[in-house]
Amino acid sequence: MKKIITLIAVAIAIIACKESSTEDKQVSEEVKTPAKPAVALYTFNGGSVGANDLNLFAQGETYKGTSKQLVDAFYVIKHPNGVLLWDTGLPEGLVGQEPYTTPDGAFTIARKDSILNQLATIGITKDDIDYIAFSHIHFDHTGAANHFAASKWLVQKPEYNFAISEEIKGNGFYAPDTFKELTNVIGLSGDHDVFGDGSVIIKSMPGHTPGHQVLFIDLPEHGPTLLSGDMYHFQENRDGKVIPGFNHDLEQSKTAIADFEAFAKAKKAKVYIQHEPADFVKMPVAPKALN
Fold it and tell me: What residue stretches are annotated with the Metallo-beta-lactamase domain (predicted)?
């Protein structure tokens, strides 16, 4: 009888040991999978762009005789270790004015509100912006940049070199005066992990401009997210892999599209085309955030 009791006790001890080992393993696995940083993405309206001649966003006659109303979004990314401003929208001289149509009739642009008013809706000021980065330096992305002279400007070196060159002068796609106050420059040579934990990564995708870039954000709930910059201007561009004839380098643009799509697929990222109205309305309106 004593022998049976002893055997039962040993069996119970072995089972308990196994259960304890399993629990320890589960705890260990949980410890090995850290929680994602509490990153939040805020979307703002930086103006509107009426593309009266949509064929400018193609080569040949792909969109001949058509037009489209585009948005001009900019974004704030809040991270536990800082704040990044991504793009700034159209020039603020448009605020309070009637929509402006370019002399050639190609575009009609407008902006309703200033960037500082919009940032105030999420409780931040210009002094709270640790980093500023543009997808690229076309005038519809740099329009309110000079407010952030104290911020660190994250820019690809080829983009910065172009920005200070003679080549930029007289080119209507650029307005260097809108970002001339940005002197705290951090030159990038390719991809850049902004906060060092993989949650916010600037991806170098040149072609549209010499140093065009896109932004990857790994949100805690929404998951992997990609802001397109001007990789595409609207969904039809992406569907047909259509490259605007005014891009800085057409061959680089083809490579960038392939790299962008491969990266989006590998990360299973949701892509938001920054000028596409249908994508803009998918985002929460600030002061609400995408988490």
Answer: 71-275
